[in-house]
Fold this protein.
Amino acid sequence: MKETNTLATFLKITFRISKSYIPLTILMAILDSIFVLVGIYIPKLIIAGLEKLDLSKVTDKSLVGIWNALSDQLLPIVYAIIALMGINLILRIITRLLNKHLQVKQVELNERFYQELSKKIMRLDYEKIENPNILDLKERAVFAAVNQSAIPVLMQSISSILKATFTLTGVIAIILTLNIYLLLIIFVLVFLTIILTFAFRNYQTQTFQKIVPINRKFSYYVSLIQDNTITKDVKMYNLGKIFTHKMYAFSREVNDELLKMGKLQGFFLSFTDLINNLQLLLVYLYMGYLVIYNGLKISDLTMYVRASQSFASNLQEFFGSIAGIRQTIHYLEPFMEFMNLEEAEDKSKGKLVLDEINEIEFRNVTFSYPRSDKKVLDNVSFKIRKGEKISIVGLNGAGKTTLIKLLCQLYHPTEGEILINGININEYEYNSYLNKLSAVFQDFKMFAFSLKENIILNEKEDDEKLQTVLRKNNLEDMVANLPNGVDTNLYKIFDKNGVELSYGQNQKVAISRALYKDSDLVILDEPTSALDPIAEYEVYKSFNNLIENKTAIYISHRMSSSIFCDKILVIEDGRVTAFDKHHNLLQNKNRLYYKLFMTQAQNYTLPQEV
């Protein structure tokens, strides 16, 4: 039942993606069957005509003489040959054209399935994307689609079943004009092959399922090798040996499984060849018996032998394709399971359009991550007014970044609510809400796009606005030295002339994104954690000047960014323990903020104003 549902879901998606693919597949199967049946029946007519020739009428042995004497008997043979050649030619032309069209459609179908997979990932809740079980399911879904080529294989199996069904219908009708015993002989022998086929396919499926987690580990180390951000660590600690050793161990594990499967496959193929040869021998012996003792004509012999061979091969193909479909469905089950995951609630269902952010309020917000009872945030309440610069500080794991995830609607509060202008953020239309936020996260990424595209992203292109952002962020000189200015590609993945920027330059580009978006609220979530406190202070100070009168939230476990902020929100173990100005917080020497600030001030020579 589960297999049937999986297949039905797959066909439904296929039909939605391409309405012409399935009908074309059926038409192709019918034409292939006609081609086979024509090749069985018309040669019989040709040989039957030759059997009827009355050679006693021939007195002149030349071709002209033979034709003149037997023209009335030769004409049906000629017509049969012309028909055979004509039908074969027409069918070949049509099937080749159809096959070419189907190949294009199949590539398109395959790509569209990958797109569906990508869309599904984008529609999932952020919490699901962080769930290791969902990540594993996604990996198995991708493995089925990419490594096992499950989608094209399944479509090919369905096509083979259709072709075998149409062909079997014809050849059974032909063989039954002789007797049913021939069918029974062939079926019994083919049935042995079918049992072996199903058994081997099941073993093959289990082997590949066993390989999936190993392959995932192997892929992880492949991704590490391709990650140019860890090059220094690899060189410094000679990690190449560790990577090579682990990849070798994983590949040996996979190869051992494949070797066992290869040996079993060799036995399976040898045994099926033996059965096929035995079947052919029995068919010829039986036919010989009918020729000698029942007076079976050579023309009929030819037809029945070819029909018998076609029956055996198509019966094997029919059940082999069913086994293939069952096997492929097992591969596709993770894909279908992933596609059937519950998606994120429709975030666009909010009706209100957010025009500007005048006030942000966390009201009694409590939050625990899925699959955890621990409260990351516990009854958090505070307000931020328009134009205020707020620094959120606390020890690692205090809940600083979680606050931002909730504000960006990546997660939703377990209890309490977040308000913008006094209205719950879920009441706002999602896209209008996001348009008012921009963020630079600690793990910001650059993409293999042009520099301009890395800054603009989904925003409307405005060259004057872009130049203003570059000037404000002191990037004009850097851009001027690039080969193609703002159109220079980052990285050499797609462009051999691409450039790789330094960490500081990448950081400025990431900040430029937030500036270009021109949103009401700007968030910096520790994007400067790799810098020393003095450099970090300079970045925050510069950014603070750049955003002018916008509302800003800075997150850092270091205090140098707090000096110029209007207020500091101190979080300890998920609770707000202070929300006040910098100089007021320094008055209480027993509180966390004072201890953190003074500890860092003693370890670094901070600017005089600090």
